[in-house]
Design a protein that fits this description.
With 272 residues, the protein is an alpha/beta fold. It has a single domain, classed as Alpha/Beta hydrolase fold, catalytic domain (Rossmann fold, 3-Layer(aba) Sandwich). 39% of the residues lie in helices and 20% in strands. It contains 9 helices and 8 strands. An 8-stranded mixed beta sheet has the order 1-2-4-3-5-6-7-8, sandwiched between helices. Helix 3 packs across helix 4. The longest helix is centred in the middle third of the chain and has 17 residues. The chain is globular and about 55 Å long.
């Protein structure tokens, strides 16, 4: 595939921002023009960046086989929010980026050609974008999504957080909690204020009430993942709201081994 990594200007962010782009070739290493390609916006997690999907998985190879263009934007530790102390990443990812892709790369961006997906924080970000702009995205997938971000319950938990300090041994959950708390302060402000547009369940209710056709949804999570219960609870609530989705689970934890399996086994979902 053709690979581009560089910077684009975003009016929503009011700055240049990094992006990684894979464009499919045909069998003779020429740009694919004989078949209509589809496009997948692929979002990173809390401690990642726009390079992570390409570095830690074989997503390029899977996409090349399916004539799928990959767009991997940078969202920093924004919680994919229009941050109170930072930039407007929700507006950039969910609304402005598709416009940029059409103008700059001339990609097919009709609703049935455009999907969005992500892991962990990016899974939340993908669902946030798809539920906020169902007219833009035909498909959306969340891999081990941190779906509780922005909810009242999660914000209350963050308000109770006290940093234990860093000990000699690395304790993964302590590091995750520390990173999540620090990122939340930037995204939601020092008071960790609740805003409904950051709450996936509120967005889901609004999307259903709008009467718009919703994107096809795919939710995955490893059965040993610390977010497994969260994902199950949100899937149940989506079902109560009448939102259709596919659910896939198998043994796994919150790591790249599981997300490699996700993108390998679920790539067909974006290409149907």
């Amino acid at each position: 595939m053709g690979y581009f990594r560089g910077d684009i200007y975003s009016y929503a962010l009011d700055k240049m921002t990094p992006i990684c782009v894979y464009l499919p070739w045909d069998d003779n290493r020429r740009f694919q023009v004989s078949r209509r390609q589809k496009t997948l916006i692929l979002l990173h997690g809390l401690e990642g960046n726009c390079s992570y999907w390409g570095r830690y998985t074989s997503v390029e190879r899977y996409a090349q086989e399916r004539n799928l263009a990959l767009i991997m934007p940078e969202a920093e530790m924004s919680m994919y929010a229009d941050m109170r102390c930072g930039q407007r990443y929700a507006s950039y990812i969910g609304k402005e980026l598709p416009q940029i892709l059409g103008q700059l790369f001339r990609l097919n961006l009709g609703r049935e050609d455009l999907s969005i997906a992500g892991l962990s924080m990016g899974g939340y970000g993908a669902l946030r974008a798809a539920l906020s702009h169902p007219e833009l995205f035909g498909r959306c997938a969340s891999f081990s999504g941190a779906l509780m971000l922005g909810s009242r319950e999660h914000l209350e938990k963050l308000r109770q957080y006290q940093d234990p300090g860093r000990g000699e041994d690395y304790i993964e959950m302590e590091e995750i909690d520390r990173s999540m708390h620090g990122a939340a302060l930037g995204a939601y402000g020092s008071d960790l204020a609740y805003l409904p547009e950051n709450d996936l369940l509120w967005l889901a209710e609004q999307a259903v009430q709008s009467g718009k056709e919703l994107p096809r949804l795919l939710l995955t999570c490893g059965t040993e993942d610390f977010l497994y219960g969260v994902n199950q609870a949100y899937a149940d609530r989506f079902q109560e709201l009448g939102i259709r989705y596919q659910w896939k689970e198998w043994p796994g934890i919150h790591n790249w081994k599981f997300w490699e399996e996700c993108i390998r086994d679920c790539i067909d979902f974006f290409c149907e």
